[in-house]
Specification:
- The protein has 192 residues and is mainly alpha-helical.
- Helices cover 58% and strands 0% of the residues.
- The chain is built from 6 helices and no strands.
- The protein has helices spanning 28-33, 37-60, 67-98, 104-120, 132-142, 168-189.
- Helix 2 runs antiparallel to helix 3 and helix 4 crosses helix 6 (168-189).
- It is elongated.
- The relative contact order is 0.17.
Length: 192
């Protein structure tokens, strides 16, 4: 009979950034929800640039392949540009989670979302069906994956609790808000 050894927790490396760290391994859906209009514009511009440059090259130096040869290549150019546009959009959004771009709006939104979850008694980062070990594997594999997004598109689709931030701030803020709500109820219920 073999005894199971306790597995060590591997904390994420902390990187000094100009802006506050929100999450070292944000869930895919969360990155999409927190995207700004400027992120969409960056992705759309990247998508539009591919076919536009391809048409410009065809105009400057024609290939003379005709419509039968040009259309499939143009469709391929659209597909590649759509992928590149999405990756630029996603990367622009995820860098705010890492604190590498201005993220004041995202910090406020994160605080509001997490405090609301604390008040409802929900897990901060969602429920997972994976074992804690597999959650750790998933976290270690996708932590800071946005840095190498242009090389290997790797996204976090796993709910886990290893996000590289001190979650005590959410609980402390929830306590302050609940206390303020309690005091407001007491003062409004006391007859004058």
């Amino acid at each position: 009979m073999t005894a199971e050894r306790p597995r060590p927790y591997v904390p994420p490396k902390t990187i000094d950034t100009e802006f506050p760290l929100i999450d070292t391994d944000p869930h895919f859906k969360r990155v999409l929800r927190y995207a700004r209009p400027s992120d969409y514009a960056t992705g759309a511009a990247t998508f539009a640039a591919g076919p536009a440059l391809f048409l410009l090259m065809e105009r400057v130096s024609p290939s003379y392949v005709g419509k039968g040869g040009f259309r499939p290549v143009m469709r391929l150019c659209y597909a590649i540009s759509a992928g590149a546009g999405f990756l630029m959009f996603y990367n622009s959004s995820i860098l705010r989670f890492y604190g590498w771009k201005e993220n004041a709006r995202e910090v406020e939104r994160d605080m509001r979302e997490m405090v609301d979850k604390v008040k409802k008694g929900e897990p901060l980062y969602g429920k997972s069906t994976l074992t804690p070990y597999m959650q750790g594997v998933a976290a270690r594999n996708s932590r800071y994956s946005g840095i190498w997004l242009h090389v290997i598109p790797w996204f976090n689709f796993v709910n886990h609790q290893q996000h590289g931030v001190d979650t005590a701030k959410y609980y402390q803020q929830a306590e302050r808000e609940l206390e303020a709500e309690r005091l407001a109820k007491e003062t409004s219920s006391v007859p004058s």
